[in-house]
# Entry
Amino acid sequence: MISAVKDLPKTQSNSSVAKHQVLTILGSTGSIGTSTLDVVARHPDLFTVFALTGARRVDLMFEQCVRFKPTYALMVEEGAAKRLAELVNTTDLKTLVIGGSKALDELASHPSVDTVMAAIVGAAGLSSCLAAARAGKRLLLANKEALVVGGDLFLSQVQSGGAKLLPIDSEHSAIFQSLPQDASTWSECVEKIILTASGGPFRNRAPDTLHLVTPGEACRHPNWVMGQKISVDSATMMNKCLEVIEAHYLFGLPPSKIEVVIHPQSIVHSMVEYKDTSVVAQLGTPDMRVPIAYGLGWPNRIESGAQTLRFESTPPMTFEDFDSNEHRLRFPGLLLAWQVLKARPGTPGVLNAANEVAVASFLAGKIGFTQIHEVNLRTLDLYEPQAPHTLDDLLELDSCARSAAEQVIGSLS
Ligand code: NDP
Ligand code: MG
# Structure
């Protein structure tokens, strides 16, 4: 197993002086994208924005262009790109507007760029992540689905391209911060990693009422404001399922050394337990600007804009076993993580595709909340992938799994 995060030197010469970085922010109009720009705006001396990309949110992208003056702004939807170009033309901005998704790879791998924030949602971000990896960029990975689908191929491209892969997901950033500097000691000294999970909006909801959940309820997370897809994933705990797979690839640990504990307050962002039973954790207020600032500033620490954690006014921190009977009924999807990691290569990508299709169908009112898991299970049964070796194989796998999931949805009454 190659572990890209393992390959990072934790200390660099001259590390007290942060180097100026030129950025491409993929998915700048989303929740992670806007938080990234919030941190970037606090450090004009450290960052220049080369490219911003979005899909549909034109007005927000225009505001970002006015503020950050990127060389390029891309909108995946052609109509949105056209409207953005019209808006840009009313100003003296030099930003070049691009429509469609074809140029995402180029913007992620452009020679002018040092650092790429990968914050597109879903497997739609896979190709641009791989392009940044091959081009040897510093790759800040929020887009967990890309790693779940890309798996070993993603890691091998990071390694062969000489890229630096830094986790942005708060749990994985916490683990990275809690691991020892010398990655060669990890397999010897780490007993396990423990991912915390808030349990989302339905942690206490009676399992037999979950079929009544509406998209509005599912998207109302108690601790985090996030995009719709990850909000639904948090409500089903499929987000934690994807994060277990993400942790396996990022830290090169076997699935048996990855555990999940429910921690409703989202203050402890994850932990590492060592052979001597010591546990090292990273704590902070639930604000994605903290892991984003860590990734942007690494190996230094830069200001994030987040509130300081005040222990005297923090609610009592509690922890629950996710593996109780009740939680197994509420969150059946989480256990799929360990199953797909044991199954044939490519299976995590099938699960991811099924889940993306199921969540979109749920949000569109076509299927019920508990049917998301049913679609995921039945798609895994219906479609057995061939081991993927290239990006084309991965895209083919993703597309076949999506068709299988659509077929399953069509067969639901
Ligand atoms: P959002 O839905 O808020 O944003 C997604 C971004 O991707 C937007 O810029 C959107 O454009 C763009 N986009 C949507 N579809 C496409 C497409 N087909 N091709 C290219 N770009 C597209 O998501 P989040 O910011 O919440 O999440 C982004 C990623 O980060 C996800 O993988 C998520 O799991 C991960 N993550 C998010 C966290 C959070 O707190 N939000 C925490 C940890 C990880 P537009 O808005 O213009 O339509
Ligand atoms: Mg997370």
